[in-house]
Automatic annotation (TrEMBL):
InterPro entries given in the database record: GASH
Organism: Mesorhizobium erdmanii
The GTPase-associated system helical domain, residue ranges: 193-358
Name by which UniProt lists this protein: GTPase-associated system helical domain-containing protein
Entries under Pfam families matching the protein: GASH
Amino acid sequence: MAKAPDMSPDFARWYADAFMDEGATREARWKGVTNIAAKGGFMEAEVLARLAFQTTVPAAGRKSEDLGDTYKTVVTTLIGGSSLDQVQSARELQILAAAALTRLFQRLPDAALAVTTTSFSGMRKLDLPMDLVGLAENAIVSFSQRKHERVGGDKLKLTDPVIAFEVAPEAITTMDGNQWKAQFDKLHETATAAIELVVEEQNRINALLHRRLMLDEEELQMLWWLVGGNSRLLEQPFPKLDPLVRPLALAQELASMTSVSPGPTSIRAMLSRAGVGIDKLALRDAVNAANADWAKSASSSKRISPATTPIHFALEQRSELGSTETWQASWTSLTGLSADVSLPGAKLAELFYREFLFLHVGE
């Protein structure tokens, strides 16, 4: 079993300050946090976000959600094989989940996206020893910059394979059949290893080129979309779009063109250029303004969550209930948010964009 990384000073401080423990229990918890961070994916990010934000909807999921096994694995791993104090278990799991998310920010864009969408522009409050949302925002910027870097030519060069083989002198001297067979077997092994190295390098270069092509196509599609100034979804020029419809519709169009999560750093600028402004809109009005057919298609994912994708969940509730008047009550009871909440159009669009990436694009 791999040794856990040395305990980070941040985690040591967070745990000691919260639970007055600097001994074996803290070590076990640190091991659990690093194990989750090493293997966790989008489902673990969903559970961890619910634990960290202590959302109204349970971290183990509703009956219609397939999160039970993931939740059990996350909790068992986080506590590192030791027991939980029942009095402070919720608080401890909250801090451990947040710590695991900060570690996941180093490699998993979905973790950072999930934290920012669950926060819902600060409408869900946190009481944690770290600025979890701020760290998530920084991680998104870092991911966007790293994943959109141009690959240097030196990274696209194959190294010359070396076949380190010489015929043994005794084989030449004796010309013995068995010795020559052994020599040919050794040559075969050495040549095979060299070929495998070439294939591995070529696959690495192919992956870099494929990612570059994806990013080039993403940039080209977004550029033509902006230059054209026309909504493909609503078949109208940007200026003629209903201001209530514009944030969600244009955010989905941009998100559907995004190939690599969490998208380019220029998303906010592109939304602004497309006419998504900073005037505040009530979530209720934006959801109700959406075309019923589009609301249904936009909320077709089986992974839609009241916690991490509350805007998609609002569209799902509206579509399922078939009414613009009745979805708010169930939505509020499961999200813990008010449907009357108002956000700047640009922020609403950005959140919807990030929710789409979390649901459909992934790593």
